[in-house]
Design brief:
This protein is about 35% helix and about 20% strand. The chain is an alpha/beta fold. An eleven-stranded mixed β-sheet has the order 3-4-2-1-5-6-11-10-7-8-9, sandwiched between helices. Helix 6 links the parallel strand 7 and strand 8. The protein is globular. This is Universal stress protein.
Length: about 290
């Protein structure tokens, strides 16, 4: 018997191009819509031409009529894409904010305030992660505030499905499995492949597969939706990307690994593999679980 848990997703939008990617991914990836609530989030970088910054307008609403025309155009396009995919108007909430601390910080703040299950970024919103990699954001902000998983969608291929869940032998594997299991529990058309790249480090592969499988099964994901795969290679990033492309996975799911005090901010917060995969992904979405 299926259980229904409402999932809340924050989709960041900036223009008609960036909104189409995160929205297109959600529209094509999910088939069971009843348990989803979607929030379209717009951070206004500059004053809108036909609306003074001093003029009052509703920052949170379900109707686009209350927003300045430039913002309303983006919200209308995104909403129409979702409606065509089977979502209803009452599942789509819209928030526009005047920039406060900066776009990235404002996204983090909204993600924390709204208790979202994931924050979704399109192609033109990927400066979020680029700022992390360039070291332009404080370590404390990210470590303490980035509580929700982040999904990056550059150019989603709507024909793809299934999730490649990457394990590295650490406890992060169970955290990633927990997120994947929660999101996919009633999405029966998607399977999960537990994937481990063996670099000869003598990891107990049976245990990491068993632990991740147990987490997935706690969300009622059956054995026939769980696959296991190991490849021996020293080139972890290339192996993951090749697997995802060859088998047309919709998602690569990975943990924020490699956090050590002796490494740079990228390695401490996100991990080298995440950075390298982020730089190369195109048709496949990347889910990073902090």
């Amino acid at each position: 018997m299926e259980t229904t848990t409402q999932k809340s997703l924050l989709i960041t939008v900036r223009d008609t191009i960036s909104c189409s990617q995160g929205v297109r991914f959600v529209g094509s990836f999910f088939k069971k819509h009843d348990d989803l609530m979607l929030t379209l989030f717009y951070v206004m970088p500059n004053p809108v031409s036909d609306q003074s910054m001093m003029d009052p307008w509703a920052e949170e609403n379900t109707s686009v009529s209350v927003f300045p025309s430039a913002i309303a155009k983006v919200f209308t396009l995104c909403t129409n894409v979702l409606l065509k995919k089977g979502f209803s108007e009452n599942q789509i909430h819209k928030i526009a904010r005047r920039k406060q601390s900066g776009t990235v910080q404002d996204i983090i703040s909204e993600g924390k305030r709204g208790l979202y299950d994931a924050v979704i970024l399109g192609k033109k919103s990927t400066s979020f992660l680029e700022n992390i990699f360039a070291g332009n954001m404080g370590h404390d902000i990210l470590e303490k505030e980035l509580a929700a998983p982040v999904w990056f969608c550059r150019d989603p291929d709507e024909t793809r499905k299934n999730v490649l869940l990457c394990l590295d032998g650490s406890s992060m594997g169970e955290k990633v499995a927990n997120h994947v299991g929660y999101i996919l529990q009633n999405e029966n058309h998607h399977s999960v492949t537990l994937f481990y790249v063996d670099k000869g480090q003598r990891v107990d592969q049976e245990k990491i597969f068993l632990d991740a499988t147990a987490v997935l099964k706690s969300y009622s994901i059956p054995d026939d939706r769980i696959n296991k795969s190991t490849v021996t290679s020293l080139r972890v990033t290339n192996t993951i990307l090749a697997k995802a492309e060859r088998e047309k996975f919709a998602v690569i799911a990975i943990g924020s690994i490699g956090r050590t005090a002796t490494k740079g901010i990228c390695d401490r917060i996100i991990g080298t593999k995440c950075k390298n995969i982020f730089n190369e992904i195109d048709k496949t979405a990347l889910w990073i679980v902090p």
